[in-house]
Amino acid sequence: MMDFSDRVLLLTGASGGIGRAIAQVFHDAGARILLADIHEDGVREVAQSIDPSGARTQPMHYDATCPEEAELAVRRCLERFGRLDYLVPAAGIYEDQTFLTMTDEQWRNTLSVNLDGVFYLCRRAVPVMSEGGAIVTIASEAAHAGSSIGHSHYGASKGGVLTLTRCLARELAPSVRVNTVSPGAIDTPMIEDLMHERARTVLEAVPMGRLGTSREVAVAVAFLCSDTASYITGQAIHVNGGSYLGG
Description:
Layout lengths: L7 E5 L4 H12 L3 E6 L2 H11 L6 E5 L5 H15 L4 E4 L14 H22 L7 E6 L3 H4 L6 H21 L3 E8 L8 H13 L9 H12 L10 E4 L8
Parallel strand pairs: 1-2, 1-4, 2-3, 4-5, 5-6, 6-7
Helix pairs in contact: 1-8, 3-4, 4-6
């Protein structure tokens, strides 16, 4: 079992399906966690659910598109817990819009949350992270294979996350390891509309024959942060049931 006792995680997107699971897995392993999300009520509920005493969690409102809030999140983490070991920028959006009807604003909003937000947070967190710390970004199968129809902005943003992860891995080694997890179709509210429209098509493309769970993604994130993965950096772990078999 992974042991994160006396370690500190800063997690964004903490009230989403995958974010909540990451928070639970890390808390179960003993970590202290700064939980950040734009849905303030939701992130407070997550904190209360996994840590009723509030001893090892700190929820906060967080807008991934705002550089000032990235700086605030890092500062609050240090003020509350005194250190920062692990960073998981998991805030993201997934909206339906075909390319030929997409507005500049829709494109910019998705890139701002999914890619700019990762840069803002990493840029402010890395200088204060503990030696031997780890960053795990959340990419997507779409970053490797291309997005489904109607999600070109999402695919482009996640492709950017994948490349940024590899670049940071080179620059920050050996002090900080940087990896990504690329989920496929995971059973979260984010893909409810997609499953309503194309459930059969989606499942037929998955050799395992089912959707993945948020916990399956969370365990991969925790592994990459753990000392067990001490010689792994610049890599993407695919959690997709075999729907994408490339690198």
